[in-house]
Amino acid sequence: MIKLNLKYLNKQVDTKNVFDEYQEKCKKIHDSFKTKKFPGSEMTGWMTYPNVIDESMIENMISISKEWIKDKNIKNVLLIGIGGSFIGVKAAIDMCLPYFNREINFYYANNISSSYLTDLYKKLSEKTNLAIIVVSKSGTTLEPALALRMFYKLLLEKYGSEGASERVVAITDANKGTLLKLANKYNWRTFPIPDDVGGRFSVVSPVGLFPCAVAGIDIKSMINGFKDALKDTSNASISKNSAYQYAILRNYLHKKMKKDVEVFVTYEPQLFYFSEHLKQLFAESEGKNSKGILPIVAPMTTDLHSVGQYLQDGKKIFFETSLLLNKPMFDTKLSSFFEDDDGLSFVNNKTVFEINNVAAVSTIEAHSIEGNVPNIVLEIDEMNPYNFGYMYSWFSKALAMSARILGVNPFNQPGVENYKNRMFAKLKK
Ligand code: PA5
């Protein structure tokens, strides 16, 4: 579960008045999510998808992942995808698993750097137990298409055509597209991405569920978290809906207090990719028609020694949304071995998490009190698949409300076509 904590917001923000001011508009938008009569409403399938998800498909995902791991002894999986077909999946895997002790090593092909892909090719050539998951809804995105061309050749060399076919799962449109055609031609197994679910809203669909099942994550629990957040954010009354409170406050801070930047702050590296997902979710959904709040990420405490100076003392163009963990996956009590030789006797017998937590709370206080930076805090009780599903759904719902208040279609990304047109013209596509 997550809890919205507004204690560090800003004394000038009278939340009750703000919520009253936005209530009517919020109710209209909330109702429109049901009547589905607004630009982009055809892409709101994710609001109901986990409730109608095909149980037999989930069982099939679990059974293929078992076949890969138990029968084929797969230890290394290359996930090919980009944007919404990659970031959220990595966010899920990182949040739900330990850092280093993992049964399956995931490698990612999410760019077109020649050095990265060539070096990855070399690395994966050395591995004897490899499989590929390729995710692309359109099936035509350059980055995954190019990587698939490179790495399927590697599977063929290793396992021959039948063995290679058994080691690829393609996740793509159910009825059309180049990737589906390839899958049919080369006999790969496939899972469908629903038509009405866009990339950055798709992780609790086969896009994220199959890779997570292979990684050993409890995907049923993830789906339950997603469903519960949908339920908990189904109230039109702002005072009873924390996702809408967040959406409205960020809009208020932007419009009334001229905050053009939102900094997503994390204190756990396990949440770094979740903050990258938030960056994508908000930027790709809201940055339209010369509107939007620019999202950036600040992984702490690392960034306290870089951008931290600006956040404390720089131009007041931003607010922060801090993700604060209550219970870590692991913790270590510090020994008193050095006594005070290192001048740190004050940490004797404290745990590393206690110290990280003190650093987090002190930073939030320093930024919000001395620095006068509004801070919205989201408390997460612990890292697990349920909470990933919950947070993913909660933020998607908040974004949908936020973008509609801003007056943009949350579910398209027309701006990304411009560079593609130029690039494909130069490449003579
Ligand atoms: O959120 C989105 O819709 C995008 O980021 C897409 O996921 C991204 O462009 C990849 O598209 P595709 O899955 O069609 O390859």
Fold topology:
Blueprint: E1 2-5, H1 15-35, H2 49-52, H3 55-71, E2 76-80, H4 87-96, E3 105-109, H5 114-125, E4 130-135, H6 142-166, E5 168-173, H7 178-186, E6 189-193, H8 206-215, H9 219-232, H10 242-255, E7 261-266, H11 272-286, E8 294-299, H12 308-313, E9 318-327, H13 352-370, E10 375-382, H14 385-406, H15 417-426
Parallel strand pairs: 2-3, 2-4, 4-5, 5-6, 7-8, 7-9, 9-10
Antiparallel strand pairs: 1-10
Bound molecules: 5-phosphoarabinonic acid (PA5).
What does this molecule look like?
The model has no long low-confidence stretch (mean pLDDT about 95). The strands form two sheets. The protein has a five-stranded mixed β-sheet with strand order 1-10-9-7-8, sandwiched between helices. About 50% of the residues lie in helices and about 15% in strands. Helix 9 runs parallel beside helix 14 (about 385-405). The chain is built from 15 helices and ten strands. The chain has helices spanning about 15-35, 50, 55-70, 85-95, 115-125, 140-165, 180-185, 205-215, 220-230, 240-255, 270-285, 310-315, 350-370, 385-405, 415-425, and strands spanning about 1-5, 75-80, 105-110, 130-135, 170-175, 190-195, 260-265, 295-300, 320-325, 375-380. It is an alpha/beta fold and about 425 residues long. The chain is globular, with a radius of gyration of 23 Å. Bound molecules: 5-phosphoarabinonic acid. 5-phosphoarabinonic acid binds near residues 84, 137, 141 and 198. 5-phosphoarabinonic acid binds near residues 83, 84, 137 and 200.
